[in-house]
Amino acid sequence: MTNRPFDALAPGQPLRTGVAILCVLLILPARPTLFAEQAQAAAGPPQEPAAKLPPAQLDSLVAPVALYPDPMLSQTLIASTYPLEIVQLQQWLEKNKGLKDQALADAVKKQSWDPSIQSMAALPDVVKQLADNIKWTSDLGNAFLAQQEDVMEAVQRMRKKALDAGNLKTTTQQQVETKVVETKTVVVIQQANPQVVYVPAYNPVVVYGAPVYPYPAIVYPPPPPPGAVAAGMAISFGVGVAMGAMWHGGWGYGCGWGHNDINVNINNNFNRSANINRNTNIANAGNKWQHNPQHRGGAPYADRATANRYGGPGQRGSQLSNRPQAGTMDRRANNKAGAGVADRGGVSDSANSMRGDRGGGDRIGNREVSRPSAGDRNAFSGAATGRGGGSARASSDRGSFSAGSRGGGGRGRK
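RESULT FIELD:
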């Protein structure tokens, strides 16, 4: 069979083909960016960069912990990024007051919390401050996630203020030194005795002076008498805590002042073995700490940009102030993730697991948690209180848990 010439085609076919081509040519010049616009529409509206906290606000935010020894400071900053687990740890400690030393280390290591939370069990005073003032703790953690370098710089500014005022100095509890780390001059605080750590207690107004931005509204120790301040006693210390079994292998973290990051000690009692395997984000990060979103337990991040970075639910609007987007927490997601706070297999006391599927602010950790007042609703309390549990059950299936909750993709409709 031979091919027919163009004019031998069926009557009218060349005309229809020509008309179709002409229509396409008429459309394209009018909308040359049609496909780009369609792709942008499918991707959603462009994201606005997260609003950053100004230096003065960061200074006040870090003021209560800026004078902690470097290892304790770094661990506290990390722990603050997991506010729900801090609440759970405090409740667990209340129920296990009889555990000490090796027994405490062994028992807390069995919990499914992040290693930074597990090792906090040896510092009950710090845990109490963080849990009792969870709004400030959550704001501190959110700021650290969004502005890590800025937070570390704020710590140095506050240390220099205390040093210049004569309120920060070497004592029998701590060693204070100004040194050059790489190209930066920084104030370093270490334990005077490597085997014993003391938690400093101080009133920021006495130590640093009046703030530009108000200091966090938390409970501070009463100001010392004028004579004590003149003698350089603005900072007090409680009973020393022996390192012992809880820190076998040394502290888990340290401040990397050269790059304003956190160094991870993988030989620490809680960071090695099973825990380090669970924290896969550390394994390939050159021993630099990276946030593990599996331990957020559904607590929303401060802004959408941070949420997208870590694959979790974020807040609408400005940073650190608005309520999170409502959603639902899929219990299956936490069960399959293996490291989430709601994983009942990792928490020996079922009352300590997050009841994300039932809602209600009094169901974080156990039913004895009181609901914060309306004025306390912030980046964390939105998840903790919620309305009818809607906010508390943040949509973790959108983030890093989604693969687990859907069985790695699930079945599509046929």
